[in-house]
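Revision sheet: structure tokens.
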Amino acid sequence: MPVHPAEHTGARVARLRVLRHLTQQGLAEKAHVSCSLISKVEQGAAPATPAFIGAVARALSVPTTDLTGQPYIDELQADQIDSLIQPIREALDVYDLGADPDIRPRQLADIAADAEGLCAAIRKTNLKRAAAALPALIHEATTAAHLAPSDDMWRTLASLYRTSYDVATKLGYVDLATTSLDRVEWAAERASDAVLGSLRQYLRGLAYLRAAQYKTGNRLLKVGLTEVKQAEPGLARDVVTGQLHLGAAILAARDSRANDVEGHLSEAQRIADRTGAVERVLWCSFGPANVQLHRVAAFTEMDQYGEAVAAARDVRLDTLPPSRVGHHYADLARAQMWSGKAEAAYITLKKARQAAPQQTRYSPVVRQTMEDLTSHYRSVPDSFSNFAHWLGM
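Predicted:
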């Protein structure tokens, strides 16, 4: 699909609708949304919410990224990040080729420490640093795992594959994210690690959420919740179980199943009350604050924007890493925007940039909110124009 970076989401919907030889009414019937909403989104007069984008993408038989415009190639090129993607692809491709004779790997402890460092870089949203260091470390860990296989070595390799997934997801490379998750499964099986395997189901569920395939995503999370029960009791199992419930809550919210949302959030809260704030166990950043963030996100997904803004008042961000803080501000800005608080939404977007600049720059939610904000300013402040330019809009 040709990339049209200057288009807003509604313009992409219109262009793809025409390519499919559909009228607005025809698309509305296939997507099960109103024709009026299709018209308003195409004109930029109504929000292209994630649920709307998902419904339209399914109706047009295109990936959701075709509607959001991801990956944002011009900005990736300007930041010199686009050239880092191919080496990651190549590193993922050698997983089953055995040891590389040209590599003399270091000790497991050294490789594991570097893998942990990349996880930390992702939580600080230093995507460029992580993407640059990742390929060589994957090659080294792959060779080490084949030369001296052990559960810990396979776990370390799985961690690097998970970092690849994180980079790909945040930059909008859906195919690379899918490959990365396949490699996580491959390494987790060799580590005989039920918790790690269940975490992979959680990440797969989120991938299907972004692809607007809610039924499949929900099935994956149910499988994860079943599999994690086979793991040894302990903090890691609790954290992944809690994360699975949080992911299921967001999927239920996107699918307008309010009772299921509350059930999953309540179960996650029960677990979080027991674990407290946990950040470094599989780098899930689980705990009471993260449950609250997901409550805000769930209200936003259900278009209950006033409730989302109210719930955000109870959130404590001081225990959370920049990646989660930035994500929360993006969700909150969207809720503020559509509850009539345009100026507050813009202030919140600037907070997202301050907390997680690289993540915010490539966030489709942030870009969509900026698109929506433009229609609410009679005279656009200079700082707003500068922010939009920074995003590449």
